[in-house]
Amino acid sequence: xxxxxxxxxxxxxxxxxxxxxxxxxxxxxxxxxxxxxxxxxxxxxxxxxxxxxxxxxxxxxxxxxxxxxxxxxxxxxxxxxxxxxxxxxxxxxxxxxxxxxxxxxxxxxxxxxxxxxxxxxxxxxxxxxxxxxxxx
Length: 136
Prior knowledge:
single chain, two-stranded antiparallel sheet, 5 helices, 6 strands
């Protein structure tokens, strides 16, 4: 399972050095953007934050360096999706990192993706001892 999740994880340079996001849908022909509520995007904080929590759990148990790097890359993306007011956006439109600020399933506010972002960031703060995660 971790191998497949790693395969779905891609660099997102706009989010900073080493930042990683998770492809939402993948077919044998390649990535497919989410479109359940109109065009949503190619990657979301909801999936990245859940994978961040898993990666932190795996790192805590194994201390494998590649898992720590993976978790830190996911954390960079999750933190980048946080707005200055502390709320969280959900989707990026494309792999260039254009944030979806207006979609019904992406707008900042109190919602399930914000809750999942906080869970992932909390795990990173605790397990990776990351100061930025602690501040978020």
